[in-house]
């Protein structure tokens, strides 16, 4: 089990909290970009920005999920022998878990909307050929 001192624990809480904020900020940015899809503002730059933001958000979610697992081991488990976890740390962990879960749900919802709108904007020929190729690859 990992030993961690109280200052490292607080640093991990703060980093994870900052990551949750970053995920929510990215979701807001993606929602803004989503409104521009299919309009005159729909440029390659917008598409590239959407893609980059989604990739960054995926990495941030992965990092945050690992950090939450580590925090859970420390706060819930007996992996910290220096100081017993405080009630405040337990509450902080629960709040952070809920915030991360909410942020991931928001992100999933906006990702789905982006995928649906992007698919709807494809020319009809491309849409049907993609469906055919996906059926072929499954067989």
TrEMBL record:
SMART domains: SynN. GO terms for cellular component: membrane. Residues 86-113 form a coiled coil. Residues 1-119 form the Syntaxin N-terminal domain. InterPro entries: SNARE (IPR010989), Syntaxin_N (IPR006011). GO terms for biological process: vesicle-mediated transport. This is TSNA1 protein. It comes from Alectura lathami (Australian brush turkey). Keywords: Coiled coil. SUPFAM superfamilies: t-snare proteins (SSF47661).
